[in-house]
Amino acid sequence: MHRPLVITEDHALLDDLVRVAAAAGAQLDVAHMPAHARPYWNLAPLVAVGADQADALAATAPPPREQVLLVTRDPDDPDAWRKCVEVGAQSVVRLPGDERHLVERFADAMEPEPRSGAVICVVGGRGGVGASVLSACLALRASGDHLRTLLVDADPLGGGIDALLGHEEAPGARWGDLVAREGRIGAGALQAALPSFGDLAVLSFHRGEVAAIPPQAMRSVLEAGRRGFDLVVVDLPRHFDPAAIEALTRAKATLLVAVADVRGILSTAQVLGEARKHTSDVRAVLRPGVVDDDLAVSSLGIPPAGTLPDQPRLTATLNRGELPKLGPRTVLGDLCTALLQDILPP
């Protein structure tokens, strides 16, 4: 993989750029004059041109390209924008003020082609309806179809979705390891840190005392997930905290699991009212009950996405650390396949 290119003879600026690149996990190719930069100009994912070499570079008339920055250590440089235009740069970066922005630009440059993964949120209309089971099964079904999938546990009091999968002892990062992280998380770094099982990565909570997820941590994880995975499934709590709202605002679709009985529909309607404040595409997944399915869906006023069947032996299966079979000839497997086909682009 090609490295970002820096063109400068200013040693103080170069030291700053090397330090910033290291914070982004990047190494640099360095050219001290424009002639040395020529072999790397079209290959580098990003070019940072020091203000000291801008006029000399402009005199060589380099071919136009994207991802060129003019970098200066003088926040009041009156010629910065003139130099920016003449070298064909897209923006001016002034250090140290723009240092965090430059870290993100270097990190972006070092990532593989982003996947633009879709986010699906799953939430229960009341407790115990199987929203976490549906989240886990969707993620397993997608990863079984070789989609790079991230399953995110957003419910601090849910008991841990890694335990639902039977992998609570798997090594890897949990939310407690990420919440103190500020700013951008690299997609590759996230994939490497989390417990993974084939094409499925899981972000859950440590056992014991847990704290709420800061919204900025959820934002960073979801943005990294969208860049590095084909699908991100988020298991939401019923009471939407700021982190859950971050997920809802990014959701391509939200699946609301409802029991088709009077109390279940009333409770689900309340959850739906809160969800609609933050996302537009909400679909109902019904559990069988005493109320007719059509009447239940019409009462909620959202489109039906499918029916989550009762499974008499589900509790025993989960307590063994197993999940229901998701093959193409099983009801639950067919439901997950249909949901994914409806929500994800072909």
From TrEMBL:
Its transmembrane ranges are none
Q: Which InterPro entries does the entry mention?
A: Cellulose_synthase_operon_BcsQ, P-loop_NTPase, ParA/MinD_ATPase, Rv3660c, Rv3660c_N
| Pfam families, per database record | CBP_BcsQ (PF06564), Rv3660c_N (PF26563)
Tell me which residues make up the Rv3660c-like CheY-like N-terminal domain. Answer: 7-115
An example molecular function term from Gene Ontology annotations: ATP hydrolysis activity
GO biological-process terms attached to the record: negative regulation of cell division
Q: Which GO terms describe its cellular component?
A: cytoplasmic side of plasma membrane; cytosol
- The name on file for this protein is CpaE-like family protein
Q: Which organism is it from?
A: Nonomuraea cypriaca
